[in-house]
Sequence to fold (227 residues):
Amino acid sequence: GENVEQHPSTLSVQEGDSAVIKCTYSDSASNYFPWYKQELGKRPQLIIDIRSNVGEKKDQRIAVTLNKTAKHFSLHITETQPEDSAVYFCAASLIGARQLTFGSGTQLTVLP
Amino acid sequence: NAGVTQTPKFQVLKTGQSMTLQCAQDMNHEYMSWYRQDPGMGLRLIHYSVGAGITDQGEVPNGYNVSRSTTEDFPLRLLSAAPSQTSVYFCASSYSAGGVGNTIYFGEGSWLTVV
Fold:
């Protein structure tokens, strides 16, 4: 089955700086890569996803890049704000599959 | 439209007790699932269902049972609680019967402690 590794496990940045979280996956057939954000004590919520037919996708301050050859994808957050502080999970799978495999999560702290 | 609703939010169990975590969704989603979240281990799939009457095991199914008698409800049963089942449990649903490729909507979580 799919295996997703996520790094780093914790990340602290100064407000206004950029943050990058990286994930690698094992199954070359995977073609769907979502990112979920979980604020403290809250439920995870989808913030952005990418499918393998594109290499990059942006939504305001958030972008995701995908390198299918190297089997890794990354979340980029620019101009970080205190409300970006949360745990971020990457995930990977094949579209139409029955299971989505999550990474172990990254605790992002944005320091004022 | 309440989304995904799960109860209870907090529960303390004694070792060996059984209990059911309730989950309901009002979005007419075919795909429903249960995850557990443990520190440093992300979200791990326990069981899932692609429609009423159809369930299957995920990554960590041992010690849990599920059933799906209606599209709306997907309860998770702990048969004989063990301290290793202390965790935060999330119910989730998604539009597609195929599951992956569509947004997963999570419930608010259930904090379970087994003593």
Notes: Residues 29 and 95 of chain B are 4 Å apart (CA to CA). Chain B touches chain A at residues 40-45, 48, 50, 56, 58-59, 90, 96, 98-101, 103-104, 106-109 (CB under 8 Å). Chain B has a mean pLDDT of 93. The first strand of chain B starts at residue 4 and ends at 7.
